[in-house]
Amino acid sequence: MxxxxxxxxxxLLAFSLALSASSQTYCIPYWPGTGPADIQQVSVGSIYxxxxxxxxxxxxxxxxxxxxxxxxxxxxxxxGHFNFYAGVSVFVDLNNDFDLVDPNELVxxxxxxxxxxxxxxxxxxxxxxGLHRMRVISELNTTIANADPCGIIxxxxxxxxxxxxxxxxxKDSNMRVLNFxxxxxDFSWAARSGxxxxxxxxxxxxxxxxxxxxxxxxxxxxxxxxSQQRYYFHxxxxxxxxxxxxxxxxxxxxxxxxDAPINQSGDFELCEGYILQLSVPLDSNFTYQWYNNGTKLxxxxxxxxxxxxxxxxxxxxxxxxxxxVTLSDTANVEVLNVPDPxxxxxxxxxxxxxxxSYYLWHLSxxxxxxxxxxxxxxxxxxxxWVTGIDSNGCRASSDTVNLIGVGISTYSRATRIKLFPNPTxxxxxxxxxxxxxxxxxxxxxxxxRTLSSIEYRNIDKMESKLDGDPGVYFLEINTDQxxxxxxRVLKE
Length: 492
Description:
By secondary structure, the protein is mainly β. The protein has five domains: 2-166, Immunoglobulins (Immunoglobulin-like); 176-253, Immunoglobulins (Immunoglobulin-like), CATH 2.60.40; 266-336, Sandwich (Immunoglobulin-like), CATH 2.60.40; 345-403, no CATH class; 418-491, Sandwich (Immunoglobulin-like). The protein has one helix and 38 strands.
């Protein structure tokens, strides 16, 4: 019974203290002054407070930290020690009415089963800027359900601190003027949940004085504007309780904008040296200036532009008057490197190349084979080259190979002339049909290039060595009695 009377007496004392508090003071809970659930440490923002006085001091309002309206900060609290764990409550006087019992002013109320508490402290975006009382209460082994900021603390502690709430009403972003003409304009800006806006449309840059036109939408349409007049659209966000963001503004000049539909927009790949022509409709009332990656392309002031060598984002600025300008859509062009030219290897009557996905084989300017084969078998004399096409569709062509002697048999029409062995590793023998006073043997490669020319006298047979790499060679035989023929020999 005595214990109950003690609790009643403590409650009446706390109630009396609350009633006697003036409108400029905060109530003070009753607490015994010390105990195992004392608050040991509070840290939030610039406040880092370690208590060394037990429960003998509770007013730490000289310790202050700042937080923007709408922001969240992490708050750390240590209460109790050893096996004495405390539940913790945190209160903030959000409306500065000198009590801590209004809705949302109890911002934390939890028992962690340890001495450490991590609090996500959020200040509502519509909180009035200024100094606000924050109270931290600890109580031994309880979650402090229905915590009373002015009640009786049986075995715990309380501290008061100061939160300075700053105006954090956010500026708007992505303000844009859309579809303006000689007399109308449409505006838009980023939408934010739970925030209103005020706007003013006028012809100077001075921030509006007083209130603007309030709206809850993120767009506005204006009509009846003067032609060829510069206007300034001023906008600010409203976060409630008299809090506004600074005024932001954008400008425009009323006019009928030029139409600039570009013929090519989007992403393109272009082989180096090839041409992608960009254009917009020609109008004698407009001027044009082309850009690449935002850099003016000097001298390119027609309604067309040829992209050929450089990658980038290409667009044109079309101007009706100094302030009446339209930007076309962008052509994002990647110029691809042209591959190195292919080379042709000649092996007998077979031409070979490598390094591409597709090949065009040419004979004297005519395509004789077009497929993915990197080889071509020749059937007649002529000038051959190949065009290689890589996986990007970019092309490169080889040098020309001039082939002669295609289709000549191993033996000449004078069948009595014989060359052996054929094929040969290098040493060969030549047998003629008779003794000639003068015999000239000229050796050429498959491209027609003369490698050697030797004159012999009074012979009908001879032995010689064929120098050079393996391949097809041709022996032209001329005598004092005329041309005998051409023999084809293969060196292995």
